[in-house]
Amino acid sequence: MKRLFRNPFHLLLLPVLVFAVLSLFNSSRTFDIHLHDTYFILAYPHFYLGAALVLLASWMLNVAVRRIAKFKALTWIH
How far apart are CA 59 and CA 13, in angstroms? Predict the structure, then answer.
């Protein structure tokens, strides 16, 4: 448990897992975005998968630079 709190960015893997599982469910619900003359329609599973990928990229970046950036407060803030 101490190891988890020493590297708090590992907690990002929990929402990644939740969003990845949510993206597997087939849903007929959509999310509509209207920008100027363009109308985007996204299915909720695509939205969840995108959120999971963004969080996974953030986790991978933190793992890659953890030996360079040793600011604990900054790690906990974001």
Answer: 7
